[in-house]
Fold each of these.
Amino acid sequence: MKLSQTTRLVIILLYAALMIAVCRFLFGTWLPPTAEKGLWLYASFAHLLLGTLLLSPYFTKPVGAVSDAAIAALVLLEVTGAVWGLHEAWAIWAWRSICWYYLAVILIGSLAMLLRNSQSIRGKQIAQTTYVLSTHLGDAPLIFSLLFLFALVAFHLENRREFLTLAAMWVVIVPLGVLENLAHLAKDIKETWIKSVRYETICETYARKEPNLLLFRRTGEGLLTFGQVLAMKHSLRDAFHYAMVLDELHLAEERWIRCLEIDGQLVAAAQETLHRATAKSPVPVLPLSAVISQSDIDLAFQQCRVYTRRADLIGLVAPDTNIATLQFELTRADLDIGEGQLVEVLIGTKPVLYQIINGLTQEEILTQKNTYGFARGTAKKIGTWNDNLQRFEHVRWIPKLNEPVLLQQAQQPPAIAAAVGFFPNTSYPLTVNVDQLVTHNTAILGILGAGKTFLALELVERMLLRGIKVIALDLTNQYASELAPYYDAAAEQAKTDALKATGPPGKANMRPNVAEAGSVQVFQALLKLQLTAFMNDQDSRLRIYNPTAFEIWRQDGKLFSGVGSMAQLTPAEITKIVTEVALDLCSTNITDQAKLCLVYEEAHSLIPEWNAVAAAGDKEATNGTAKAILQGRKYGLGCLVVTQRTANVTKTILNQCNTVFALRVFDSTGMEFLRNYIGDDYAGVLSTLEDRHAVAFGRASSCSDPVLIRLNDRNKFLLLNRP
């Protein structure tokens, strides 16, 4: 409990009288003796005036530590000759050690003052360390006790009367603090009998920002922490209001406390305690925990959502928030906020989730708050979770200004077979409509090694489990081994070998009618025969071809002298044949149910953009493939496009992909294409996505807006979905 300034002044006068009496008793004079004999008296007065009772009564600041150490050092320098005159090695050693100690305090305190406005994390850590060291090592009782005890031992040790008397006086003033303890005792007894405690206001209301946001200016040194409840009055006759501490700012050489006004009701006994304790105080703003118990506080605010979930509170809704995007001011600087995390905000009475798309580190948060008074985050609206439908539903409105923003705590994703992935560190799944993946076409885009093929394999396997047939044009030769339970490799190899055998003889098949030359017709006829059987076979669901494995020939032009120019079909041209045959087989009836999906793995080689073709016939071949895909939807035919080079894939087909999974992308063309689908905000995170993370959007997605998800691990998917 603090003593008033008047009380401290009275105690100083009483101590001064005691020291003068001791001086008279020991030396027979009211005036201080010579320098070395009076050193104890100078140290005692400095301790009382500069130490615990007047200038630094409660704690020592770095500037106080520097000034106290400097004064003590100057006093010690005045007795240099006397110390050397003792001709004692221990006295000289002790004198030098204390001088070095004072010098260290001066240097550390000076460094603390120089670094106090550091902006970097490391600078703040060093500044805090030097501050702590200077306030402890430069504590006034310690500084001047060293001086007093040195004088006592060096100049009064041989005179037992002087030594014992001065030692007893030091014990009374410093360790025991007899008069201070008596003053505290008297004050405690007085307050016990008058049953009222006078609390000092620790801050004053400076501004109110509607709704519910309060700004206080610091006026006292009481400890305030995040989540603490303050009790306040707007006038002497007003009832108490309550606010929860959000953060503390250091701006314009002053300290500011930002608080959120909250509603609660103290029980009758707690209310009586609060009113009685502050009856003789000025209009107070004080921590509620200083007056009543924490259990009473928790009981009073148990219905207040922001108080009960204060551990999750990270910020407040900021201006510029719109229907799709949340802007929020961060009130916490003790955490890293990463892209993909979910936050919750009330819109009306509905808890609506948003996904953070712009992460901030602790250092960035601290820097922005100390520079501008706030740090801002951005999140995209996901919707409100429907537990029955296991999907998000869109909410078409915006939250109120200053509405609390709560961080969703990390959770372990549950085992859900239908989930393609989960929102990062949550239990919220993203599922897909497998039929719409096919009928409305799907694209998987991303750089090498980001996880495209594993995602493609998972989507293909979901199609197979759904009973949808799949023809995979695979240049990687991964599909046969990864999808082995659905693929009879030996039987399919025999069919593939039969197709391969139709090709080489065509190199010598030159005809006046170009359409009859080569081996295209024979290859196409056998392919159609095999795929007809495939479509009619209930037990066969997967067919895999590598277009580069076929040697199919066509005649380039008319015969000249009985000889024609022959050219081998490119992968793009073989892709066109397979696609057109697939369309022909599916077009027997119109349906909105998916029947067949064509997978274009390494699509930049199978359906290249016109300016990225490898051979003259590839442009025409790609146009033919695109035309077939455009017509295929009404017959249940669709495609899955997988590529790492978005710029080199025909946009005629990509633009028809109504579902897109965008993994990590660097090239500007790919980002620009995806920007049209997922918007500027999500396009901005594509280059920093981690492996197995994707931005998903489209008709087949369970979310109506673009979302960032963590894709399934291959092993987990297989464990949940393999029959």
Amino acid sequence: MNCKTSFFSLVFLFLLTLGAQNSFSQCYELVWADEFDSTGFPDPTKWTFETGNNNGANSEWQYYKSKDSSNCWIENGTLVITALKEDYSAQHYTSTRINTKGKAEFTYGKIEARMKLPYGQGIWPAFWTLGGNISQVSWPACGEIDIMELIGGSGTRDRTTYGTPHWADINGNHGMYGGSKTIETKFCDDFHIFSVEWTATSIRWFLDGVQFHVMTSSGAQFTEFQLNHFIILNLAVGGTWPGYPDATTVFPQKFEIDYVRVYQQLNKEKMSGKDSVFTKEKNLSYRFIPVEGRQYLWTVPNGVTLLTPADSNAVIVDWGCTAGDITCTVTTSCATTYTYTKNVKIATPTISGPIFYNKTAGNLFFSVPDMNETTYLWNIPADASLVSGNTGDSAIVAWGTTNGIVNLEYSNSCGTSYISKKVYKYGQYPYPDMDSPFLIPGTINSTSYDFGGEGVAYHDNDVSNQGTTGIREDERVDIEMQALFPSVGWITTGEWLEYTMKVTTPGYYKIEMKVASAGTSGIGPIRVMVNGQARVADIPVVATGSWTTFVKVSQRLLYLDVSDTILKIFAVKGNFNLGPITLSVDNTVGIEELTSDKTKFDMFPNPVNDVLNISLSLPKPSNIKINILDISGKQINSVNINCDRNGNQKITLSDNIKTLNSGMYFIEIITNDQKYFSKFLKN
């Protein structure tokens, strides 16, 4: 019910209505409704009152009040919204506007209401929807579907209903395509049913079951109509479209609503329940969301036992020994039948329990899923002892002082199986396989930081996990799932993550990370550390405009050796999300390196321990300045040498090298005639 205009763009002539016709056959089932069968204000679990003068939109004259029985009241099965001529908060009329935002939002379906409309010049009732994302993208980019609007007045105005969609086109401009239906009598004389049938490809408008308007809604320019919308009911007084009350307008005016209902086609519904189970697993639940008027009939594979009736929307079963299909035939209220099948596979259970034996005090508890008619036999290391549960599905163990394995033998009519779990001394280990570090070169998911916990394998400033993905929820790191990969979010200054790696190819690497940030300042950078040392310059993090829009950032000339085992990602400043981390062999040269001509300049050994030898050929006597810089380009120390002869020179650096920490460095040699620049690694 935003500002309406009368133009019709030729661009959208292809959206021509197909003419009045009966509703095409669909099996719509009721999913939400308000029958207004109570007495009082609208149900607060379904409706929210809006207040004010609609922020001045459309130049309307009313003030929408909250919970005033003179403006909004349910009685005798009808919601009545009343417009009154009265002064209130600088306006001269009062009325009501209610919506279902955040309480009932829908994508597609049949939305209808049975209503008796008000009448008269300047009276503007509406039954319509807005996109649920309006707070993020504003109007008209959120989309709007006007199911019913009437602009009261003389002539045909009290006899005409309008149906209009609004959207933002691919250039961000307002688009609309309206239709209308005029009847013989006034809409205030009797109740009528106003509805739309909204699918992924079209929106159709109906009056009393007869279609009067249609629009194609598929394509990139109509994405607003592929998202959730909420419902609005209101009665406006005045505005740029209907005009304003005059001497002919009678007050009060009443907008009467018998019901509002939403139907959807639910044939794409999914059966919930596990698709991977264990032999003889007990109390497995499979279900559908219950829908009034539906009938259900379940069938299960041989060997599977139904524990509840087969004609309910949900069943509980005990599984057997083999894989199979669990099936439900669903008959809708329209007598349409759908068959849903879930292929259930057999999996091997795992032993639940701690991975560290000395992280917390007390005995250790191990368990497996509850399986029917099954016997269990636990086997533990020699220096541990069973406190209880030797032959049950769980065991309490007093652990010893070394790493060890918990073994379980379980037997039932399906056979005998064996599973095990390794328990470690508390410390830092690779994730997810504690015995398998990440192989480099390769890619590491940022969420696969090491086992070990806070202060050992990571540091997170917040005490709780703010993520919502279900990954590693027992830890503090904030994880969320993106479309293609999980990411670490809510990163703040000083937080860090560590990854145990195995370098298979020593040499120089390029490190790339995917980052996202909706921030505008205080973003990053990221410091890359290997075995506790910064090996490359800090990596800047850019603003991407969204927490889910990821771009690559990188740094080159990261030297890795087979002795390098711990990669640390440190947030010098935060305000970004972190995605996958890729380390690839970097055989390209990104700086000027004049090392190919060994007759002029050579440096050995490289990597170096305590003594670095430099061979330099001088065409004539020269002053020589040798600068040693860290990876960020900061000068660490400098040596000045005066050579009074030409030819080959041998220079030995010792004290300047011994004092360096392990890591990569640059060396800059400046003579009267030439500048040499190279890099070396200090062991």
